[in-house]
Amino acid sequence: MEGKKGRVKIFKEGWPFLIAALSFLIVRLAIKNPELVEKYYSDNFYPHFARIMSSFSKMLPFSLWDIFWTLFIVALLGCITLVILKKLKLMLFLLRLTQVLALLYGYFYFSWGFNYFRPDIEKIIGLEMVTVDEKLFRSMLDSVIIMVNENHTTVKHEDYRDIDSLVEYSYSINSEILDIEYPNGDRRPKKMVFSNLISKFGISGYFGPFFNEINLNRKILPMDYPFLLAHEKAHQFGVSGESEANLTAFVVCTKSDDIRINYSGYLALLLYFLEDAQYFSDYHDYLRKLDKTVLDEIKFRQQYYFGLQNEVMEHAHESVYDAYLKSNQVTHGIEDYNDVVELAISWLEQEGKLSR
Q1: pLDDT in tens, 117-162
Q2: Which of 106, 234, 310, 339 could staple 19 via S-S, CB 3.0–4.6 A?
Q3: Which of 116, 133, 155 is the last residue of a domain?
Q4: Number of domains comprising the chain
Q5: In the chain, which stretches have pLDDT less than 50?
Q6: Are residues 132 and 180 in the same domain?
Q7: What 3 state SS string does the chain have?
């Protein structure tokens, strides 16, 4: 009888670790079988899960993701205090903590994380990648500058509701070329609860996988809103890589019929181009090709976000997020954001939308 009770106790204490171990093994298999991940998880399981969870999270106006982590940290600090006061045994605390972390690890991949192991976006949408040399890069940079100048307009905070509907519409009509499951649930943009604090880390938005919700920083500038919104929506559709979400957002924005959304999409791409071009000896010649109003906005944007950020906190976030991305097979880590330049050039070459 005591042997049976012992086995029951072991199971009660050990089942979270069993789930984590099983999740780890499935992750190892998923990494080696992206086509199976696409077929069984991304195309079949995840859309149903996203519909259920997003239907729940949309009913609440605040970020469940923010509230969850706030409560988690408060509970963690409370337990540490109890351990220090010897009101809670250290070993019991460590056991419960590792059990919770084990369950969160398993739930993360179950709820969204397996999307990291899908085939690359070029394979999914049939994008033929081109070799980007300096000549092609410079030519495309000139073209993007022209499009930014031509589409320049003013975006206002009061436009946000309208922009959300228009971005959704662009996703719906472009879902086939992007090979995404539409509608894939509901996407209600939510403002971060702690925007001031999060701004110090240089974070403008994120997708909360546990509750399938989109969170945007209250402090982002209106000119960035359409692109960032489209980027986080891309994650909700199961697009995991940052460069892939950037490409998806760029396509959705530039294929919209609304000039505010067009401008945000081209401006976002231009900023990535300029980051890569800053080492050219004639870099400032490209800046002079921008209309003065556009250049002034870019300068204001740079100063605005710089004023919000804390250098130490931003670097800490980048280091942690870089390690997180690399652990999930995003080879370039945080530099993956800038890989959108190569993807976008290939897309534009294939579409033939920008003349060279």
Answers
A1: 999 999 999 999 999 999 999 999 999 999 999 999 999 999 999 9
A2: 106
A3: 116
A4: 2
A5: 355-356
A6: yes
A7: CHHHHHHHHHHHHHHHHHHHHHHHHHHHHHHHCHHHHHHHHHHHHHHHHHHHHHHHHCCCCCCHHHHHHHHHHHHHHHHHHHHHCCCCCHHHHHHHHHHHHHHHHHHHHHHCHHHHHCCCHHHHHCCCCCCCCHHHHHHHHHHHHHHHHHHCCCCCHHHHHHHHHHHHHHHHHCHHHHCCCCCCCCCCCEECCCHHHHHHCCCCEEEECCCCEEEECCCCCCCCHHHHHHHHHHHHCCCCCHHHHHHHHHHHHHCCCCHHHHHHHHHHHHHHHHHHHCCCCCHHHHHHCCCHHHHHHHHHHHHHHHHHCCHHHHHHHHHHHHHHHHHCCCCCHHHHHHHHHHHHHHHHHHHCCCCC
